[in-house]
Design brief:
Layout (H helix, E strand, L loop, with lengths): L8 E3 L9 H5 L10 E3 L7 H7 L4 H12 L7 H11 L10 E4 L5 E4 L9 H18 L4 E6 L3 H10 L5 E8 L5 H8 L6 E6 L3 H12 L2 H7 L1 E3 L5 H18 L14 E6 L4 H11 L4 E7 L4 H8 L1 E3 L20 H8 L4 H14 L1 E3 L2 H10 E5 L2 H15 L5 H12 L7 E6 L7 H6 L8 H6 L7 E3 L5 H21 L9
Parallel strand pairs: 4-14, 5-6, 5-8, 6-7, 7-15, 9-10, 9-14, 10-13
Antiparallel strand pairs: 1-2, 3-4, 11-12
Helix pairs in contact: 3-4, 3-10, 4-5, 5-6, 5-10, 6-7, 8-20, 10-11, 11-13, 16-17
The chain binds pyridoxal-5'-phosphate (PLP).
Length: 496
C-alpha cells in the first residue's frame, strides 16, 4: 500500500478542508451541512490484501483504522488496545463469523455484539476512540443519537457508565421491535437519556439536525453525533467489506499473476452507511460488485434505476424496521465519490433534496451511480418467503433485514465465476414478529428473556401542532440541564 504521510478530512459540500481525525470524530455533520470524508483514499495493492488474509477481524479493523488515523493522533499500541477492548465482549471468537450455506449462499454474520446488530461493531470502536480523547484531555461530551431501532441500543450499550460522556437517544416509539425498545429503556445509568418520540425515524432526525445547526450549542456542550453521519463508524465498517473480500472472493486460490477476483456483496440498506463504506473500499481498488437491497422504502433503488432521488410522502412500516428509512443520508458520501468529489454539485443537490425532499440526479452522476451499484426492493411477502426457503434448505434462520439481501441471491443469478456474500446485519432474536409471520420458531437467548423483567426509564415526545420546534426545545433543555449539572460535578438524568 502506498503510505500516505498525512490524512486530512474534508466536507462533501466543499466548505471544509484540512480537518484531523479527532475533530471529525467529535463532529456530526460538517459546519457546511455536509459529511466528512478523507481528502485522499489510499490504494490497497494485491500484496497488501494477500498479507491481510491471515488477520482476525479485530486485527483487520486495526489495520484499516491505522490507514485513516495517523499514529501521532492515536499511537498504534493504543489503537490496538482500544479496538481489542471494544471487540472483546462479542459472543463469538473474532467478533464475526461466516456461514457457508447451500446454493452458493455465504452469509457474513456481523451481529454477535451486545445488542445483536451489526452496528455494535463500529459503534463500540467509535465510542472507545471518543472516550480515549476525552480522557486524555479531561473533557466531557454529549452525544445525541436518533435511531431507527438498532443504533440507539448499540450506542447505549457501548457508552453506559463511561465517565466522559452523556448520551441522548431519541427513538420512534412503537415503530421498533419490543426487544429493541427494551434494550434502550431498561438502561438506568445516569449518563443515558432516552426519549420516545411519536413519529417516524425520519421525523426523529428533524429536531436533531436543528440542534446540530446551532453552532453555539454544539461548541458549548461539545455535542456530537454517533449516527452513521460520523466518519468513524463508516471507517470501521470498511472492514466488513474487506473481510468478506479476503474470505469469500477466492483470492486465496487465484494465481498471483492473475487479476484480482471480483466479489459481489449484497447489503441490506437503510441510511446507506454500510453501502457508502462499500463504495469507499471499491475506490481503494478492491474489485467489488455492490448490491444495495431495501424493503418497500425504495428510494435507493429508484435513485439507482432512474435517478429519481425523492422521498415517498410516508415511511412504510415493514417487517424489516431498521431499514424503514426514506432519507438515506449517507448517499451524500456516495454522490460525492462518484461525482469526482464535486463539493459544489453535491451542495446544490443535497440542499434541494433537503428543501423539497426530491431531486433528479444529473445525467452524468446517474450514469456513474448505475454502474457503481445494483439495487432492488422487496416487500414483506418476499421477506417471509426468503426466511422460509433459507430455513428449509439450511435450517438457518435469517433476520428480516438479512432476508432482504438473501432474496436477491435467490432470484438474481450472479455473473458466472463471481462469488457472492450477503451481509447479515442482525440476529433474528430481535425480530420475533417477522419470525412468527414466517411460521418459524426460535429459541430466545437468555439476555433477551431477561429484558422483560427489567425496570424501564424514558421521556415521551408527543406529537403536537409544532412538534419540530417542541421536540427541539425539549432536547435542548435536557442538554442544557446535563451541561450545568456536570459543571458542578453532578449528574442529571431526564424524567417526566
Ligand atoms: C442499521 C441497519 C441496517 C442499515 O444499515 P445502513 O448502514 O444504515 O444502510 C440494516 N440492517 C439492520 C439490522 C440495521 O440495524
Amino acid at each position: 500500500m502506498e503510505k500516505l504521510l498525512v490524512m486530512w478530512y474534508c466536507s462533501t459540500r466543499g466548505g471544509v478542508q484540512g480537518w484531523g481525525f479527532q475533530e471529525v470524530l467529535f463532529s456530526g455533520y460538517a459546519p457546511d451541512g455536509g459529511m466528512f470524508m478523507p481528502e485522499t483514499l489510499p490504494t490497497l495493492t494485491p500484496d497488501t490484501l494477500r498479507s491481510w488474509r491471515s488477520l482476525s477481524y479485530p486485527q483487520l479493523v486495526i489495520s484499516v483504522c491505522s490507514v485513516f488515523i495517523p499514529t501521532e493522533v492515536i499511537p498504534l499500541a493504543d489503537l490496538e488496545d482500544l479496538v481489542n477492548t471494544a471487540l472483546s465482549g462479542f459472543s463469538v471468537p473474532g467478533a464475526v463469523s461466516l456461514a457457508k450455506l447451500k446454493q452458493g449462499l455465504n452469509v457474513l454474520e456481523l451481529f454477535h455484539g451486545k445488542t445483536m446488530a451489526f452496528k455494535d461493531l463500529a459503534m463500540t470502536c467509535t465510542v472507545h476512540f471518543l472516550n480515549y480523547f476525552l480522557h486524555k484531555d479531561s473533557l466531557r461530551a454529549i452525544v445525541v443519537v436518533g435511531t431507527s431501532g438498532d443504533t440507539g441500543g448499540s450506542a447505549i450499550q457501548s457508552a453506559k457508565g463511561l465517565s466522559g460522556l452523556d448520551l441522548v437517544v431519541v427513538y420512534p416509539r412503537g415503530r421498533i421491535t419490543p426487544v429493541q425498545e427494551k434494550q434502550m429503556t431498561t438502561c438506568l445509568e445516569d449518563n443515558i437519556h432516552v426519549f420516545a418520540a411519536d413519529g417516524s425515524s425520519d421525523d426523529v432526525d428533524v429536531p436533531i439536525r436543528r440542534l446540530f445547526s446551532d453552532q453555539e450549542l454544539v461548541k458549548r456542550h461539545r455535542l456530537m453525533s454517533l449516527n452513521s453521519v460520523n466518519w468513524s463508524r463508516v471507517m470501521v465498517q470498511l472492514a466488513h467489506f474487506i473481510y468478506a473480500y479476503l474470505h469469500v472472493s477466492g483470492l486465496e486460490e487465484a494465481e498471483i499473476a492473475a487479476p484480482l477476483p471480483v466479489l459481489e456483496i449484497i447489503v441490506p440498506t437503510g441510511g446507506a452507511g454500510n453501502i457508502a463504506a462499500g463504495c469507499i473500499v471499491k475506490q481503494m481498488g478492491i474489485p467489488l460488485c455492490l448490491v444495495a437491497m431495501t424493503n418497500a422504502n425504495d428510494i435507493v433503488p429508484r435513485t439507482v434505476k432512474s435517478g429519481d432521488f425523492s422521498m415517498a410522502t410516508n415511511v412504510t412500516q415493514t417487517l424489516a424496521p431498521a431499514i424503514d428509512i426514506q432519507d438515506p443520508y449517507n448517499m451524500e458520501r456516495v454522490f460525492w465519490l462518484l461525482s469526482g468529489r464535486d463539493g459544489g454539485l453535491v451542495k446544490r443537490m443535497m440542499e434541494e433534496f433537503q428543501n423539497l425532499h426530491r431531486h433528479t440526479l444529473p445525467k452524468a452522476l446517474h450514469k456513474q451511480l448505475s454502474q457503481a451499484l445494483t439495487s432492488g426492493a422487496v416487500g414483506d411477502q418476499e421477506i417471509v418467503e426468503t426466511m422460509q426457503r433459507c430455513w428449509k434448505e439450511n435450517q438457518y434462520l435469517l433476520c428480516p433485514h438479512t432476508a432482504v439481501a438473501v432474496w436477491h441471491h435467490y432470484h438474481c443469478s450472479p455473473t458466472a465465476g463471481v462469488n457472492r456474500c450477503c451481509l447479515a446485519t442482525a440476529s433474528p432474536s430481535k425480530f420475533q414478529a417477522a419470525v412468527q409471520k414466517a411460521g418459524l420458531t426460535l429459541d430466545l437467548p437468555e439476555k433477551v428473556l431477561a429484558l422483560d423483567k427489567k425496570q424501564t426509564r424514558y421521556v415521551a415526545l408527543d406529537r403536537s401542532e409544532n412538534w419540530e420546534k417542541d421536540w427541539e426545545g425539549r432536547l435542548k433543555q435536557c442538554i442544557q440541564a446535563i451541561g450545568s449539572a456536570r459543571q458542578h460535578g453532578l449528574s442529571y438524568y431526564e424524567h417526566e
